[in-house]
Amino acid sequence: VWTRTTPAEAQRAAPKTGPSMLEQESGGNFGRRLQGAGLTTVFPDAPAVPYTLNGGQPQTVWFDRVAMAYEAPEDEIGLRRSVEQVDKEIDRLVSAGLPMGKIGVAGFSMGAGLALHVGYGIGRYAGRLGMVASLSTFLARDSCFDAKARAKLAEPGSSRTPLLMAHGQHDPMIKLEWAQATHKRLVAAGVPVAEELLTFPGLGHDLCAEEVQLFLDFTLRHLGNSEKEL
According to the lineage, what is the superkingdom (predicted)? Predict the structure, then answer.
């Protein structure tokens, strides 16, 4: 499940962060390799809701922001609405017979923050999925995530869902230090993530070929069957 990025935060800097960018940065191999490993991708879209950073006008965003800042309060109501939307996508996959350990959630920018909440925080499947990937994002300093993640990961039956987290070193929109602070909180909460945040020199609020390849390899390692030539 790839939670698409949102125009409000990333369209100018990274106009293609959905399937087209994943295909472009993988040399056209992203979908083919997923298919070869028996995987399919679901791309839910954010709802159009009033967005404070757009003057209160409707925009396709996963949740509201009153300011683009680490200290800005989290929109927990909007966040819970969007987590439930993604959880319902997972409900359909589970109802179709797919094991939770073969389902992953990933995203870019605001969608990546949502993926963290789905995979470790307030999501109904938190701590039980096969993997999470979170690219170019941060969690608000006052986020409900930290306490929820600690509790979820301590529950019996938690699968210790692995996380791939990465960020551009020259991101002008989501500061590297916000991502680094978020990463430290993830480690403190017990999220299975690398000890150091994975960063890419020269990369802004965007994806690059190396990052997409790492994401693809991570996904195949944790969710895929043996790849077949197509």
Answer: Eukaryota
